[in-house]
Design goal:
The protein has 175 residues and is an alpha+beta fold. It has one domain. 32% of the residues lie in helices and 26% in strands. It contains four helices and seven strands. The strands form two sheets. A five-stranded antiparallel β-sheet has the order 4-3-2-1-7. Strand 2 (23-31) and strand 3 (36-44) form a beta hairpin. The termini are far apart.
Length: 175
């Protein structure tokens, strides 16, 4: 599905780790067709990153499926990215933290809880009305499934056992 996104805010934020150097630049975007917000990392002063657009609705659905009151790590966002870089999920969490969508969980390093999402949406809607879009872009948007398919634990162990048996037979020349 192709969607037109309007970039409504360009900003920078620090990375999550205190040891990390440099900052991140991100865009907050709006899709008028379904009235949804998206976040995209656009620059990383110190390394690689994925510039995929991530829907705020997908982020919120994932947090909700995890339990909206429970703390979580940025790894929760890893399935959002097609390019499986090592830090993309953390960069997304950093941008969401900077926007107030997430807040740090007290007493738990690099853990988060849901922040003030209505305040974020209000601020973004205000920017849309006051400034209009900074730029427009067309993207092919791939919605993220809200739940991963579950594999039965016994089934996965059985497959693993079969693969190990095949590998052992092959290694010992008994194919």
């Amino acid at each position: 599905m192709t969607t037109t996104l309007r970039i409504i805010k360009k900003s920078t934020c620090p990375k999550l780790s205190t040891r990390a150097k440099g900052s991140l630049t991100y865009h907050a975007c709006y899709a008028a067709t379904d009235k949804s917000f998206h976040i995209r990392i656009t620059a990383n002063a110190g390394g690689f990153f994925s510039n995929e657009y991530i829907s705020l609705d997908d982020v919120l659905a994932t947090i909700e499926s995890n339990g909206s009151d429970s703390a979580f790590k940025a790894l929760l966002f890893k399935p959002f990215y097609q390019s499986k870089g090592a830090n993309n999920h953390g960069f997304l969490a950093a941008a969401l933290l900077a926007e107030g969508v997430l807040k740090p969980k007290e007493g738990k390093a690099l853990s988060f809880v849901l922040g003030d999402v209505p305040a974020f949406k209000t601020a973004m809607n205000k920017l849309i009305k006051e400034k209009g879009p900074l730029a427009k872009c067309n993207i092919s948007y791939r919605p993220i499934p809200s739940k991963k398919p579950q594999i039965h634990p016994l089934y996965s162990r059985q497959l693993l056992r079969e693969e190990l048996t095949k590998a052992c037979k092959w290694a010992h020349g008994r194919s």
